[in-house]
Amino acid sequence: MYRVRSLPGFRLLCIFLALIMAFSASAAGLQPLLTGMSKYSQDVLQSLRPAPPAYTDEPTPIFYGDNPLRDEEHRGGLYTDAQLAAIQVQLIENALAHGTINAGTLGMLLVGGGGSGGAPMAWERNLGSVNSQTGNKMTTLPIVSWPIRGGGTLEFQLYHNSKSTRVTPAGYAWTMAYDWSVQQTFDEESGTLTGANIYKQDGTIIPFTYNATTQKYVPPAGIPETLVKNANNTWTYTKKDQTKWNCRDERQLHVLGRQSW
């Protein structure tokens, strides 16, 4: 019989190939086994845990989401505590002036929330018609709209804000297209002028802080609008699009005209 001479390199190659085939076969067999063992262990652990009850008389803690520091009342720094207190006082006085205050509306006015109405700010988001920051649902009902000379339109809408406590001739939490007003705020103890609040037609309330040094009204951060009290005691409110609203003096201020440059 003829014997083939075995070379050391050839023998090592054969051993290496045999090991590769053995590893592949064992891996193919071990993978389903490991998967089955993992699933079995999970089922065992799940069976050892107590099943949650169908209902409970003790509710679990509220889940505030991934950002529990969200503050719907101050709206990301739009309002301070003092400004919210001033808004609350003005809303109660406004309800008394309209003769629409009762036990129910007074309770909601005392609870607060007057600053939660209106369209979302630039840093807030809407889910449909609901502000995800404040939880307010704003409903807009268009009534009429006419084009006017010089561009733009003359429109009349009704607005309802679910979290507003503002009272107007349209009703509780309802506002109309020309429900604009400016109301100054004062310190309760010293009587010093502290600012002024813009009450917009859609239910938004913008607080301006009075700077006694410059004698100017300063808007909150992120609000590109200006408010000026003129020498004849009228007000000029300029919006971001440079639309100007001119108002008479004192608390229930009526819009005299609108000019756009």
Number of helical segments? 3
Q: How many E-type strands?
A: 15
Please state roughly what percent of the residues sit in beta strands, choosing from under 5%, 5-15%, 15-25%, 25-35%, 35-45% or over 45%.
Answer: 25-35%
Could you say which structural class the secondary elements and strand pairing correspond to? alpha+beta
Q: Describe the biggest sheet?
A: 4 strands, antiparallel
**For the largest beta sheet, what order do the strands appear in spatially?**
8-9-10-11
Order of helices and strands: HHHEEEEEEEEEEEEEEE
Flag low-confidence runs.
Answer: 251-261
Please report the distance between the alpha carbons of the first and last residues: 111 Å
The overall pLDDT average reads 77
Brief synopsis:
This protein has 261 residues and is of the alpha+beta class. The protein contains 3 helices and 15 strands.
SSE order and pairing:
Layout: H1 8-48, H2 81-98, H3 103-111, E1 126-127, E2 130-131, E3 138-147, E4 153-161, E5 167-168, E6 171-172, E7 174-176, E8 181-186, E9 193-199, E10 205-211, E11 216-218, E12 226-229, E13 235-238, E14 243-247, E15 255-260
